[in-house]
Amino acid sequence: MSEIRCDYTIDYMLERGMTILKNTMNKKNVKFIKPIIAVLNLKTYIVNYSEFCNSLNREMIQIQKFIENELKCKTSLVNNLDKRDETMISLKIEGKYKESQLNPIINRCIETYILCINCSSKNTEIIKINRINYIKCLDCLSERSITA
Ligand SMILES: [Zn+2]
Description:
Layout: H1 10-26, E1 37-40, E2 43-46, H2 49-56, H3 60-71, E3 75-79, E4 89-94, H4 99-113, E5 124-129, E6 132-137, E7 143-145
Antiparallel strand pairs: 1-2, 2-4, 3-4, 5-6, 6-7
């Protein structure tokens, strides 16, 4: 009677599975969360702002500065606006803006600060060399300076 041998232990297979999963998760098409925009008392809120910035792998201040520059207005961070999640921080924008006005700015922000122009990955980080900010792509490793 021949014995069926398995060269792979369950541990090995599990570990291998996890590595493949991890690599897939780190690779390309990093999904970013769509900002939820709400208007209340002549102010505009990006309700899920902290979640949105996290998904972009950016500091809240970086995105905030960009939005302020684009809209030429003041913004501030507020909490407890999102009842689903008490840890969520929202961005309060002075003035009333429609989603159709904010979305192009958010898209431009993503193109300027996040997207790799070489491979279109959003899996990037900002690095600073000699006071110049660069976007480094974590997928194709290309770098570009931020000109905006
Ligand atoms: Zn790239």
